[in-house]
Model the fold of this input.
Amino acid sequence: MVAHQSITTIASAGASMALFTGSNAADTLSDGAGNDLLRGWALGNPSGDFGPADDNDFLIADLGRDTVLGGGGLDTLYGGADDDSLYGGTGADTLYGGTGNDGVFGGAGNDLIFVGVGEGADHVDGGSGVDYLILDRSFSTVGLNFSIADPALAQTLGDGSVIVGIERLLFRGGAAGDQVEGGIYDDQLFGNGGADTLLGGDGADELYGGAAADQLFGGLGNDVVLGGDSADTLNGDAGADQLFGGAGFDVLHGGDGDDIVVGGAQSDKLYGDAGADKIWGEQGRDLIYGGLDNDQLVGGIENDTVYGDAGDDSLWGETGVDRLDGGTGSDYLYGGADNDLLYGGADNDYLFSDSGDGADSLYGGAGIDYAYINRSTSTQAISFSQAAVVTLADGTLLNSIERVFFTAGSGADLLTGGRYEDVLVGGSGADTLRGGAGADTLTGGEGADMFDFITRAVSGAFDTITDFNSAQDTIRLDHLVFTGTALGGLAAGAFVLGTTALQADDRILYDADSGALWYDRDGSGAAVAVQFAQVTAGLALTADDFTIL
Done:
């Protein structure tokens, strides 16, 4: 017998044969038709003694009731066609029982064990270590109830096989409905056909439902759960899980942790539950609930209903006539294409409506709510005045909106803010911007714009004009608010460069160093000047830049 060679022994039927490797090396041994003993042992010394080898052996049984001993090292053992006994030994071994009623014993080390359907009633014992069972029942028509939650608890399969000492599982189900539970390590469970119930247990598990209506539970750990073709129920449970519904009408629960939840092809129900979740409805008329914490929720295609629930959530309707409800928390709502309903809910919310997105209805609800109205592609003249209820020319409705960020298009637009801090952007036309009460931000854009001040200035609540151009823009002041002025152009004597009124008829002060514009109602009298606007510092302003209404 020579070391380091592939050795084949063909024994007569009924005989027993022992085979030994020549030295501590990786050898391949295969037997014949008898009842044989194959050992991955090595010749220890010149006297001819044999002992367990620490090498990587490849041991193949064939016909007959064989006993295969792996010894030390990373061994690979094949059982063959009859009732065989396979012993992996002390290394991380790979064991295949084959046909017949086999005994498969992993021994010490982290072993990999293969068991298939229709191959006999096997007895499988992983032994010590973290052992991995590949249980393939793809061709089975009988359902299985199997768990490795307690590796020490022996499980009996429908074909009489007994399995114990397994810590990890790769399971492939058959045509019937299976109920399979993984253990504390990372498992892979494939339901395939049948209405399956798959439980990942602890660890980062992968669960695939398959063709029928399945119940999938990720358990502890960061799991990946895929539903399949029918109406499935997916539960991520604890951990940061990833759930994908698939083709059917699915129900998905993210559970605890920051989850990713994706619906699929049909109308699904998706729940983020606890954690900062990301949810996509995809196709179908989906129902989405964000749950606790700060979630990101996307309806997708068709008419979706999206609830943020608790937390500071972001909601997108995308295409379809969608209903978005922020719930509690400071939420961001984007309707998308078509005529959407946006409800801010409690707290201070932000609602968005863009050009071409349809006639949306924006309901702020409780709190100080902010509407972003983008009409930058519009060529029509827009007249907007902030109020409790506003309907735009395109049918967009604003209800209970306290603040606006309004961007106009190329028309000659009239934009009027409300009592809170608004942002008004005129666009490329000759626009008129009126901030109203509150500290507003006004941008005229291109064109000869007018900035109207028609409410009484309050200390600390002045408007900011971001792009005033004295060559073409005009600041217009209401004579009932800016008393002591006369209708028409501002008198030259009423305008002062500086921060202090020098004459009794001085009214408008411009501090070129800071860009502040002040109103002094009694000029050099005792009254204190109040800042009503902020423009760019260093402008060459004169009385000609002001008109009294």
User: Anything to note?
Assistant: The longest strand covers residues 112-116. Residues 242-338 form one domain. Residues 293 and 311 are 4 Å apart (CA to CA).
